[in-house]
Every structure is written in C-alpha cells, then in structure tokens.
Amino acid sequence: MTKLNIRSATKNDSSDLLEWRNDPLTIQMSQSTHGVSPADHDLWFQKALKTQSIKLLICEIESDLKKILKIGMVRFDGTADNLYKVSINLNPLHRGKGLAKKCLESSVNDFSIKNKRNIQLIAEIKASNEASKKIFSDVGFKYVKNIDNNFLQYMLDLNL
Questions:
Q1: φ and ψ at 67, to 5 degrees?
Q2: What is the pTM of this model?
C-alpha cells in the first residue's frame, strides 16, 4: 500500500471537510442528522484551527500519478484534562478501500507522540455503524457502554 501521511489541517482543507461532512452517509451516521451551512462550517473551522484543545488531522496518500490525495480527517476534541473525543470522516471517494483503519491508527499514533502524557480517547459511534465499530475496535478502542439507543461509547487509554 502507498504510504499514508498525517498532517495538521490548514485553512486550505476547509471546503473538503465541509463537502465530506455534508455527504449523505456522514449525515446518517452523525449525532447531528442535518447538513452544515458553509457559513456555520467556516465559523467552526476557523475556531477549531485556533483552539489548542482541538486537533484536526488530515490523512493523505500519494496516487500512482504522484498526486497527493486527501483520504480523510481525524478530529481530537479535548473535553477535559487528558480526555479527548475522537471522530473520523473519510472522503466519500475513498470509502471501502481499507484506508479508514490506517488513517485512524496513524492519527492516534501521531496524536500520542505529540501529546506525551496519559490520555483517554473516547469515540461515540452510531450503534448501526458496523464499519466504524470494527475500525475503532481494530485500532484498540474497547466498548464501554451504550450512551443511548443510537450511540455506543468506545475508549482507548494512551499511557505514555
């Protein structure tokens, strides 16, 4: 497989993240079941880039034609000291290619290297989202509890 690269999001990623967020499957699997307006996205994105407790990582691969392809985004939202909520969203063009696990795994590794302390990562996954449950489990997240009838909580301890 082509090498996967992880980098921090920049303002140039905003339109891609908005497009991926408003994809019908993403909306279906999200806690917020409606699309996001460009204005609302822009406000959120600008704030996210400036907020220390939010890390937006972009996963990229190089195509056979040596073009850099954005395949997904992993977001780490600090909710309390040493506790981060993790979410992943793949570029719809790259779903079903086995890239999500590598993107999540590489992003978690990158995040843990840059944040050298004990951290707990929490993922809230729609109960019907079998692909995400498998991906997070394969990366080491453990099922914790049902949040409600629709979402499950998974956790990963990063003890450094």
A1: -95, 140
A2: 0.91
